[in-house]
Amino acid sequence: MANPLVLDKVMKQFGEKTAVNNISFQVEEGEIYGLLGANGAGKTTTMRMVLGLIYPDGGQILYNGNPYGRELQAAMGYLPEERGLYPKVKISDQIIYLARLRGMSSSEADKSLKYWLDRFEVPEYYDKKIEELSKGNQQKMGFIAAVVHKPKLVIMDEAFSGLDPVNVELLKATVKELRDQGTSILFSTHRMEHVEELCRNITILHRGNTVLQGNLREIKKQYPREEVLLHTIGEVTGLEQIAGVEKVERKERGYLVRISQVAAAQEILRKAMEVSEVEHFEIKEPTLNQIFIKEVGESNE
Amino acid sequence: MNKMGTVVGFTFMNKVRTKSFLITTLVLALLVTIGMHVPYFIDKFTGGDDQPSKIGLVYEGQPELAKSLEAYTEKQQAAGYTLVPYEQADKAVLQAAIDAGDIDGYLQFAEADSGVFPTVTYTSKKDSLGMGLQTALQAALQNVKAEYLTKGMLTDEQIAALSAPVQIDAVKASVESSGSEAGNKTAETGAINYVIVYVLIILFFMTIMMTGNMIAAEVTAEKSSRIMEILITSVSPLAQMFGKILGMFLIGLLQIAIFAGVIAVNISLPYNQPVLADFNLQLSDIRVEVLVLGLVFYVLGYFLYATLFAAIGSLVSRTEELGQAIMPITMLSLAAFYIGIFSLSAPNSVLMKVSSYIPFVSPVSMIVRVGIGEPPVWEIAASLVVLTIAIFLFGWLSAKIYRTGVLLYGKRPSFKELRKAMKAYKI
């Protein structure tokens, strides 16, 4: 069976500027696909094309093997980057309205809304207005608006930006729950730590071009482990002299050593054990953040 | 179409429930009620007309004139005032009489050379004469003046004929009907049709200004709160735009229905009926075609303007910029309004004929012409066709602008940028 979402060499130009250049990827059923990139990398444009808001100049986007059509509106959910709802309208009114626009009946929509409000432990918001809620809670309502009609494909633009850690965890848990129910999720962010936790496959965009794509674990494997984290009780000197060590950084509780070959790590450990007592020793795998910076070549956030 | 119904319902329900809607409707209904009662109250307060006001007439200085005035007043059956003669121009006595309520005020003739009619002063507690009294006194004094200047060379009948105002009857020359028939018809049109035209024009202008602004403001608000992005992924922009326009239209209709109800209740109040009858307004005079055609043009005109308002609303990202952006349409509707109002007295002028074919002005012009003038049927039909074509054209254009505009954020786009964006979005 064809995947819920397939992008094939999708290209989009705004005047002279190429916003998205030959992007291809697929999202499977029950998968959270990460779309990464700095600001202006083309994430939002890609998502808008997937949503059918704008049409690609080249390539094609297929949904379960079919091109875009009106009927897809009921099957898609969208959480825009700057999420918005009517500030002065009761939450129940507007979310049921949005669900009805996506083809749900009012009674179903009402039930679904109540379920989600309970899920977020805020059933009392049913009769409140958006303007009465805090920003974090407004975002939760935006999230509910995106998923209330039980879409098969959810598109989330910067889903977790601006939320406190507790709410980020809550939202992550619900996103995972959706995934386990078989919903496909296209997820964009520039917060790498969320991607590492949620996504199986990612695409990193830079100025409209794909710079890195594939399975997250495999991507990481390609990048050598270059950092050793060492926590000791006493002071360890002379780490710089070990062959393969590039740089030693003094940290609060120990050292962060940058190495050029993995063998050097063993030497570091031996040396540390000789001089002092080792509390913690770790050969760190590169974080996505580091990979991203390396690939994109400029600081991100 | 089902979705459009949902949009209509949502727009309608949300507006109806807002406090601002309730308050404006109530205030306007109250104003209408007060306005309807004004004639009654005026009647009540000038009720003194029944007992004619007593006016002191000072004989001193110009006894002939005073005598002549008194003689004239006696001849009138209902002069609306009675004269109380005073020999002496004694201020204290007259003042005392006013204070005591014996007279309302007094008339005094100034000294003047012979052969020149002297100025007349009316002294009373009030700042001015009442309207009725002024006309009555003026007519009487006119007569006195004629008599004084001609010094008995003319008979009373001649003097009366001299002071009667000249009547001009405007009769339209027409080929099909003879003069007398045309004259009858103009009379038949009656004041009530004039009132209907007036009301329709004001309603048209008010609805456009109010609902038009609401439409534009709602679209901008949806855009600035970014709910638009969710909306246009759920409903086609066309359904969304027309859903909103229809919803607002229903709001406007509801408001009009409420006002109509208020007016009907006020008219049916028993004490208001004689007053209305005084104005010579008979409901049976209403020509059905005026009402029907008036409403048709009203509705079509509304849709033409509403689509433009929606398109403009979609171009603006922030509500603060909206007022400036809708300025051109506001001017346009103002122009239509004034062309209509100023042409009420000349419904068959060239200006009206030309503006019947200019879409944004034609609704008002045609309402005036159908109501008061006599446009040929083919002109009405042609105007309707032009208007309908314009609605489709501007509706189509507005939908395109809407579709593009809602995705463009930041500063208001220029026409060039808009065209470029349309091309980029392949709309």
UniProtKB/TrEMBL annotation, chain A:
SUPFAM superfamilies, per database record: P-loop containing nucleoside triphosphate hydrolases
InterPro entries: AAA+_ATPase (IPR003593), ABC_transporter-like_ATP-bd (IPR003439), ABC_transporter-like_CS (IPR017871), ABC_transporter_ATP-binding (IPR050763), DrrA1/2-like_C (IPR025302), P-loop_NTPase (IPR027417)
Record domain ABC transporter: where: 5-232
Keyword Transmembrane helix appears in the UniProt entry: no
Keyword presence, ATP-binding: yes
Gene3D superfamilies per record: P-loop containing nucleotide triphosphate hydrolases
GO molecular function, one term: ATP hydrolysis activity
Entry coiled-coil feature ranges: none
Keywords: ATP-binding, Nucleotide-binding, Transport
Family: Belongs to the ABC transporter superfamily.
Protein name, as recorded: ATP-binding cassette domain-containing protein
Gene source species: Paenibacillus mellifer
Automatic annotation (TrEMBL), chain B:
Gene Ontology CC terms, in alphabetical order: plasma membrane
Domain ABC-2 type transporter transmembrane span(s) in chain numbering: 19-399
Transmembrane intervals: 21-42, 191-215, 249-269, 290-316, 322-342, 354-372, 378-397
Full protein name: ABC transporter permease
Topological category with respect to the lipid bilayer: Multi-pass membrane protein
PANTHER family: MEMBRANE COMPONENT OF ABC TRANSPORTER YHHJ-RELATED, MULTIDRUG ABC TRANSPORTER PERMEASE YBHS-RELATED
Keyword Ion transport set for record: no
InterPro entries given in the database record: ABC-2_transporter_component, ABC2_TM
Cellular compartments annotated: Cell membrane
UniProt entry tagged with the keyword Nucleotide-binding: no
One MF term in the entry's GO annotations: ABC-type transporter activity
Alphabetical UniProt keywords: Cell membrane, Membrane, Transmembrane, Transmembrane helix
Organism lineage: Bacteria, Bacillati, Bacillota, Bacilli, Bacillales
